[in-house]
Amino acid sequence: MTHRSPAPQDGRPDSTASTLAAERRRLINLAYRMLGSLAEAEDIVQETYARWYAMSPRQREAVASPGGWLTKVAGRICLDVLRSARARRERYVGEWVPEPLPARTEWPTGAKDDSTADPADRVTLDESVGMAFLVVLEAMTPAERVAFVLHDVFRYPFSEVADIVGRTPAACRQLAASARRRVDASRAPLSPATQRAGVVRAFKQAWEAKDIPALIRLLDPGAVAVGDGGGLVTATLHPIEGAEPIARFFADRTLPGRLTVRECTVNGQPGLAAHVDGVVVSVYAFDIADDRIRRIWAVLNPEKLRPWKSD
Fold first, then answer.
1. Is the pLDDT assigned to residue 111 strictly greater than 50?
2. Cross-strand partners of 224
């Protein structure tokens, strides 16, 4: 699928076209972190560009900073979406988990240039898109989340954040501080990536062997596993808590002969993807501390696995 910036509707050349096109990557990154949904982030960016081109040429020329204008509009739309998302997610079947993202090297259709890249390929994979981080963001109020992402992740000054959130800079500073405390409270010492990958590999091997004792040893006693099927495929509707219940759940799951589980990168962290006949049917993200798995997020909702599949 090709995603390009909308063309001016009046047919006249737009001197800021190249600047606007360059802003798309940043806006996708911004919106995905705010919403935890790539599909919604893409819609936000499309709507933002549509509003830009809905203005007259004179109105566009009067904008001193097109990039700043796009950020302000995208931020405000994200805030509106977050406010309505709470009600929508209350109606969601089962648990809601942010959409998982693959690494660029794991794209089914191979590498793409920037002009034809899928939005997922434009998201920078760093700590701020780790599944554990996004889940903490989900627990914030819409205003907290927007203020925190804009200031702490993208380094916008509170004067600009205030203009987007519709509050004073001092109020936005308090919102970001509250959000920061939530993030800090959830953080655990991060072990090296190779070490975390080793834990995920050991989990995969124990799962395939249905080795319950080995699975228990890999899980923190207070571990929690969450499944997201969205009511479209079968998934556990409620979180599974405790090392032994989680171990037994995975050991009891039948792995069809056509299904293979492979190691991969999920939101920049070691994870797993289950394939049937080469098609990804589920993705597993992990929160690992001290060589123990604290959280497992299993995304089975096919609508959230779009970036993992070929066109």
1. no
2. 241, 295
